[in-house]
Amino acid sequence: MSDEPTLTTDATLPGARIAQVREGAGLSVADLAAAIKVTTSVVKALEANDYDSLPGLPFVRGYLLNTQKALGLTDADVMDPFNRWRVASGNMQTVSVAEPGAMSAPLRQHPVRRYIKFAPYVIGLIVVLLIIRFDVVGTIADWLVPPPEVSESATRAVPPVEAEPDFEPLIVEPSLALPDVEVAPLPDDAINEASAQSVAVTAVEASAPVVSDDTDTPAVAAHNLVMRFSDDSWIEVREGGTLLMGALKTKGDAVEFAGDGPFDVLVGSVKATQLVFDGNVLDLTERASQNVARISLP
């Protein structure tokens, strides 16, 4: 027996076997093309062993593997003749996985599968970065957002206004000189009677009930709001949409407001602010977002 390799001819390539099994199964060329997801021209080239009209031998090998599976053929029917043809024709040598002791080429790992094991670490890192970002952005916003402008009339203390009298001052002009008139002295009886009448009038006035005038009593405010500060905190207080105060308060400050409400309160630092409304201390942390709270009272 000669040791020289024998070239495989077209008669031993799998094309004829593929056509035979396809026709025996009652499948058309279009049916097989749809099953392996290629065009009919590819199926015709495989059955004619016309590999030159196909994109390349790696593609041909893939087409043959899919055809083998679709028709239920074995390596001996399809892949073994193709591999022997490649060896004999000088193309890259491959061996059938069905041959005992043969080593198959290593499969390339998909790029996505290569990195998918790092997905939990990447997701955890993204969550941590988002948390840090929200804290940093909230802090920077507190630093960069300028306080709203407050009109000078709202913060300036109003001096008390003295009420002007509603009567004209009495101007006493020097009287004209009167002629000297000699007044006769009253008798003792008339003096005693006048003294008695004066005492009676004084007694009546003392016994009369005192009637108080409540028309000028100021109205009592419906609500009371007190704010105390243990550190720096910007606040805004509005009543019925009117700005009562907008200022930066420091440690030890305290402000108090009284009115009918409603009060809209903005607290820039919940941790440094205590709010007491109508004698009740409110928990600002339940209504705070990143140490800032907006509250409507009542």
Give the structural class: alpha+beta
Mean pLDDT: 76
Categorize the overall geometry.
rod-shaped
* Fraction of residues in H or I helices: 25-40%
Adjacency order of strands in the biggest sheet = 3-2-5-9-8
Beta strands, count: 9
Question: Roughly what fraction of the amino acids lie in strands?
Answer: 15-25%
**What is the tally of helical segments?**
9
Helices and strands, in order, run as HHHHHHHHHEEEEEEEEE
Quaternary state of the chains: single chain
Shape-level CATH architecture of one domain: Orthogonal Bundle
User: Which fold name corresponds to the CATH topology of one domain?
Assistant: 434 Repressor (Amino-terminal Domain)
Largest sheet: 5 strands, antiparallel
Rounded radius of gyration (Å): 54 Å
The H-level CATH homologous superfamily of one domain, spelled out, is lambda repressor-like DNA-binding domains
Q: Which consecutive residue ranges, at least 5 long each, have pLDDT under 50? A: 1-8, 93-109, 199-204
N- and C-termini, Cα separation: 108 Å
Q: What is the CATH C level class of one domain, in words?
A: Mainly Alpha
How would you describe this structure to a colleague?
The chain has 298 residues and is α+β, with helices and mostly antiparallel strands. Among the domains are: 10-88, lambda repressor-like DNA-binding domains (434 Repressor (Amino-terminal Domain)), CATH 1.10.260.40; 109-146; 223-297, Immunoglobulin-like. Helix content is 36%, strand content 16%. It has helices at 15-24, 29-36, 40-47, 57-71, 79-88, 111-116, 119-144, 152-155, 188-207; strands spanning 223-229, 233-239, 242-249, 254-259, 263-267, 273-277, 280-282, 288-289, 292-297. It has a 5-stranded antiparallel β-sheet with strand order 3-2-5-9-8, with no helix packed on it. Strands 4-1-6-7 form a 4-stranded antiparallel β-sheet, with no helix packed on it. It is rod-shaped. The chain starts with 14 loop residues before the first helix and ends with a strand. The model is unreliable at 1-8, 93-109 and 199-204 (pLDDT under 50).
